[in-house]
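U., I forgot to send this yesterday:
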Amino acid sequence: MSGETKKRVLSGIQPSGNLTIGNYLGALQQWVAEQDTFECYFCIVDLHALTVPQDPAALRAKTREVAAIYLAAGIDPEKSAVFVQSHVSAHTELSWILTCLTPIGWLYRMTQFKDKSSKQQQESIGAGLLNYPILMAADILLYQASAVPVGDDQRQHLEFTRDIAQRFNHTYGETFTLPEAMIPREGARIMGLDNPLAKMSKSEASEYHAVYLLDPPDIARKKIMRSQTDSGRDVRFSSDPERAGVNNLLTIYQALTGEPKEAIEARFEGKGYGDLKKAVAEQVNDRLSPLQARYNRLMHENGYLDEILAQGAERARAVADKTLAEVRDRVGFVAPYR
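Result:
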């Protein structure tokens, strides 16, 4: 990375389910803000999506949808590389090399694996679910990323990435940059509207769980107006689990407006939960309406999205293949004859 003035950032989202306001506030909004400060690589992680069964046609459609949402949210392809993970083969090759270096005990200790595998029959648990953190580590380390924008629930995966990078560096010599977590102050963990004690998920089946980024305004408003609150009256931030619903709505409002907590509490002084919900719905729709308009234009511009993804993959390969060549040399592979 010598000679570069900007540090690198790498992040991605799976093309499964429907992207939510939580994905926007916890990831996309932050990515947009980083583009002028960092050299950014944002991918659609379709390889990760295969840890659960996917309909091929749906996966292709969702991959393009997520790519268009990236751009509609404000990711500028002139500033950031936007690409599909499977278009850069270095991801899978480095993942295998790191797999051979990873103690299996590390994988069994991962919280995400324990949570997801506990909901499945032992015989139906795919090896991809266990090895998921290794592929994620390969994604990050290929680009020598200094920082990774993640929600606070992904801290363990980033620590795993640092551990495996240190193990490789100790075994084969200094090769990988150790990445740091980049977690936003507000909106890092948006909770479900119907269950504010659980993180908002893009794959949750409940109709009123999340506002999706492509929800029409009336649907988004309806979901927010039906969000769970409590029997209290004061509209104030709180760490009390009993007030998690109100706190979640206030967190969404703050992440969208950028206002300090004190100003928001003063704004809603003497007002009720209904007023808060209406204000949150207005802020959400004000942000989503232009995003949806840009998304619809992008999806109707024949060939544009494919061209952007091809250019992004080319930029990504230039960096990833350089790292992979060094890794191949370090582990003792014979270089191909040219």
